[in-house]
Design brief:
alpha+beta, 12 strands, Nucleotide-bd_a/b_plait_sf
């Protein structure tokens, strides 16, 4: 099917959650939430986020989908999001602690709270009605939450919640774009397209993806995001030394294998080089789609998980803080 000639409602929806639209706070706001998620959520594929459209379309349709959504959101105002209130879900054998977002576009008292998100959802549904799983789950509304911890039982949930509520400082950010995300298998999500709110002349650099603060074109020369690569598809029980050894020409200055809450390594790591030029050169040595054994690299600025080496996604760093 040619996306440029087919009707958008006929674009093929992904059969699984490897293709989604998530709402993601900027990386600089992650620390307090993600430090908890790192200790209580295994196999995370995205940093703190609100699951929004899940599943979305197959990646083949993303470029045209981004263009069509850009038109649909050309007069969409930015939305202020505040994370301050905790809630929880009880499951049969576990419980989930979450933050319940509040929404309120700045300067518009008549367009507030959840209505803003319902409007955003309705605009997307008008273009791609086939991606209606979110609507069905919420019975026509967007039920927003940011998962913070997956607990073994209610007692653990109460303990974690009490500790967080005693020290948590509310987090606010401006929702001004959405991300069309895709992941390979169980790897983290990658930003494939960014769709801005408002007319092109009013767009500002996105939080993730091309032209974001970590992008090669905009990053400060010595910013860790601009000097870091995410390495996906690592062999089981890969060590930091083995991760570093993948880069034989210029060894990274720092390297870290991401750990699950139980301390077991994931097939995922992040490496940081001394200079952006070294990072550029090492990235260029890798096949774009990865090696035959499935290992591949991506720039950190295009990934929505993990964080920099020793950052909020580092189990060892979080436990030591």
């Amino acid at each position: 099917m040619d996306p440029t000639t087919a009707h958008p409602s006929t674009f093929t929806k992904s059969p699984n959650s490897q293709c989604v639209i998530n709402i993601i706070p900027p990386r600089e706001t992650w620390a307090e939430i993600q430090s908890v998620r790192t200790q209580y959520i295994a196999d995370a594929r995205c940093g703190p986020h609100l699951s929004f459209i899940d599943p979305f379309l197959l990646p083949h349709f993303y470029p045209e989908a981004a263009r069509l959504l850009g038109e649909a959101l050309a007069d969409m105002p930015p939305i202020e999001v505040r994370l301050a209130k905790f809630g929880h879900f009880k499951h049969a054998k576990s419980a989930t602690l979450f933050l319940e977002p509040e929404f309120n576009p700045p300067g518009n008292i008549h367009y507030s709270m959840a209505h803003a998100m319902d409007d955003l959802l309705a605009r997307i549904m008008a273009v791609f009605p086939q991606c209606d799983d979110t609507v069905k789950r919420g019975q026509g509304k967007f039920v927003a939450h940011v998962s913070v911890a997956k607990c073994k039982n209610e007692q653990q949930l109460r303990s974690v919640q009490a500790k967080l509520e005693a020290s948590f400082r509310p987090i606010s950010f401006t929702l001004k774009e959405i991300y069309l995300l895709h992941r390979k298998g169980t790897n983290p999500f990658e930003v494939k397209e960014v769709v801005h709110f408002g007319p092109p002349g009013e767009h500002t650099p996105p939080h993730f993806g091309p032209d974001s603060p970590g992008d090669l074109l905009t990053a400060e020369q010595h910013h860790p995001i601009g000097r870091s690569l995410v390495v996906c598809g690592l062999p089981n029980n890969c060590t930091t030394a083995q991760l570093s050894a993948l880069f034989t020409t210029t060894p990274p200055a720092k390297a870290e294998v991401i750990l699950n809450p139980n301390g077991k390594p994931r097939p995922l790591g992040v490496v940081e080089f001394d200079t952006r030029q070294e990072c550029d050169e090492e990235e260029a040595r890798w096949p774009a789609e990865g090696r035959e054994d499935g290992v591949f690299v991506r720039r950190l600025w295009v990934m929505v998980f993990p964080d920099v080496v020793g950052g909020s996604c580092s189990l060892n760093a979080v436990k030591q803080s």
